[in-house]
User: Which sequence fits this backbone?
């Protein structure tokens, strides 16, 4: 009996290191203390039982039965604790989420034939707790190699669509208020109003990042590889952002801050896509190789702010973003201002959003700017209207209309209109 008890106790202690993701440290310590107490009482009872039995004569039957009953009772308590802990299975330490979007899209670009297409996007993401301070995640998504889009255009006679590795990362939060992440992970950089003046929401940085957040002050750091081979020492970029969170009155909240980033890519060929596609950024011919290369580095200062409050029982958000590339001679500025009314998070809820954006050719790295505004990249300005209605907390309809001008640096911009109708589904 004693051996069984010890084994169960040790098993529980081992399980304690596994299930900490589901219970608090206080609960785990209480279990450990209880196990220790029960084990100690068992030791005492067994010792008393032995001492009460002189070698010359057996102990009275009543004494032996009482000790045996107490041991069996304690043994049952330990077994019950073991069953409770074992019920916290390994599977419970895994979180699984995903989403699917069906989109109809109409694009009307001046000087080109109109385009109508249907597109799908499917993503799935799994994250597991390996310990209380360590998580590992992987994710898959439709689409090709585009770093800022997981859309897959429907067509090709019903052919199969590509699935790519979208996420592969670890998170470590062993320091208070701090998360360190590495691999290929979601873009956590500040995007006021959820809009991508500088960073597309689908962009997955590849490298190392750190987030420090004590509720009022935020600090984001990011080091990302743009190319895996750093022979020229120019394929690595880094970003730093600082933000303050302030409560205003009873329902208001103001978040504001700034940042600095360095993408030293001048003289390099395009990081993705065709050798002549710079996504709106300026380029020149390399006199030695004859290749088209980036004209500028992109060392950006940025400022951002978002103010949220209640109006007429609805949530309201006002947001803005500004950036300037200190390395460019001209066409170096970008800004965005907008507002959102409502919040389509639960059944029957809705929201409307408007923003105006002006993103000059060399204001930021075009490759990772918003892939929808102005057709993607930089060198565009204009209006965006959108509205969302929630049929369910996990199912909504969204309509977005872009009224943009593109090719601003040419001095003779073209009109660019885009309509998107989305059905969005998610599970978690």
Assistant:
């Amino acid at each position: 009996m004693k051996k069984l008890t010890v084994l169960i106790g040790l098993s529980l202690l081992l399980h304690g290191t596994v299930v900490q993701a589901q219970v608090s440290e206080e609960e785990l310590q209480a279990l450990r203390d209880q196990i220790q107490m029960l084990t100690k009482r068992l030791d005492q009872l067994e010792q008393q039982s032995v001492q009460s039995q002189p070698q010359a004569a057996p102990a009275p039957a009543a004494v032996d039965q009482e000790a045996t009953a107490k041991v069996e009772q304690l043994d049952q308590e330990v077994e019950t604790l073991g069953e409770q802990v074992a019920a916290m299975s390994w599977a419970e330490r895994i979180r699984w989420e995903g989403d699917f979007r069906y989109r109809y899209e109409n694009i009307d670009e001046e000087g080109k034939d109109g385009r109508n297409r249907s597109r799908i996007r499917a993503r799935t993401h799994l994250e597991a707790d390996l310990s209380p301070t360590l998580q590992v995640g992987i994710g898959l998504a439709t689409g090709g190699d585009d770093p800022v889009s997981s859309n897959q255009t429907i067509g090709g006679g019903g052919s199969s669509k590509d699935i790519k590795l979208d996420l592969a990362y670890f998170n470590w939060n062993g320091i208070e208020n701090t998360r360190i992440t590495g691999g290929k992970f979601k873009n956590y950089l500040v995007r006021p109003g959820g809009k991508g003046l500088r960073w597309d929401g689908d962009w997955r940085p590849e490298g190392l990042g750190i987030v420090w957040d004590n509720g009022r002050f935020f600090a984001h750091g990011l080091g990302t590889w743009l190319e895996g081979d750093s022979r020229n020492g120019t394929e690595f970029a880094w970003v730093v952002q600082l933000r303050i969170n302030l409560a205003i009155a009873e329902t208001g909240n103001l978040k504001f801050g700034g940042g600095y980033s360095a993408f030293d890519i001048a003289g390099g060929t395009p990081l993705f896509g065709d050798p002549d596609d710079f996504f709106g950024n300026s380029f020149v011919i390399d006199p030695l190789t004859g290749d088209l290369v980036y004209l500028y580095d992109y060392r950006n200062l940025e400022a951002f702010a978002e103010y949220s409050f209640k109006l007429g029982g609805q949530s309201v958000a006002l947001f803005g973003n500004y950036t300037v590339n200190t390395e460019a001679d001209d066409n170096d500025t970008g800004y965005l201002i907008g507002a959102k009314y409502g919040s389509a998070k639960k059944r029957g809820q809705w929201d409307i959003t408007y923003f105006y954006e002006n993103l000059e050719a060399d204001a930021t790295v075009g490759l990772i700017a918003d892939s929808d505004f102005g057709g993607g990249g930089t060198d565009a300005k204009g209006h965006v209207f959108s509205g969302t209605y929630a049929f369910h907390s996990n199912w909504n309809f969204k309509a977005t209309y872009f009224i943009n001008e593109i090719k601003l640096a040419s001095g003779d911009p073209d009109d660019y209109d885009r309509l998107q109708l989305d059905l969005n589904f998610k599970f978690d």
Q: What stands out?
A: The longest strand covers residues 115-131. The two ends are 45 Å apart (CA to CA). Confidence is low (pLDDT under 50) at residues 1-23. DSSP finds three helices and 19 strands in the chain.
